[in-house]
Amino acid sequence: MNQVCLTDGTQDAEVRSIYVSGNNVYVAGYEYNGTERVAKYWKNGQAVALTDGTNGAGATSIFVVER
């Protein structure tokens, strides 16, 4: 297994949930944008913002059904 950095380490971030499906790893949590927490999920290390960062938010769980 290889280590994957989810952020560049310049802002606070937190992982709340990890889900593995086949060769895909999904992670849910948040990354701080300097003002607010931005809810995000990462698929194989690639971030997807779930909120725009206007208000603080965070994802607490992830479950995936791949078809």
Give a short summary of the structure.
The chain is mainly beta and 67 residues long. The protein has strands at 13-21, 24-32, 37-43, 46-49.
Characterization of this structure:
This protein has 67 residues and is mostly beta strands. It has one domain. 0% of the residues lie in helices and 43% in strands. It is built from no helices and 4 strands. It has a 4-stranded antiparallel sheet with strand order 1-2-3-4, with no helix packed on it. It is globular. The N and C termini lie far apart (24 Å). The relative contact order is 0.27. The mean pLDDT is 94.
Key attributes of the depicted protein:
67 residues; mainly beta; four-stranded antiparallel beta sheet; globular
- The radius of gyration is 12 Å
**Would you count the extended β strands for me?**
4
Query: What kind of oligomer do you see?
Result: single chain
Low-confidence stretches: none
Judged by helices, strands and strand pairing, the structural class is: mainly beta
Tally of individual domains: 1
Helical stretch tally: 0
List the helices and strands and how they pair.
Layout: E1 13-21, E2 24-32, E3 37-43, E4 46-49
Antiparallel strand pairs: 1-2, 2-3, 3-4
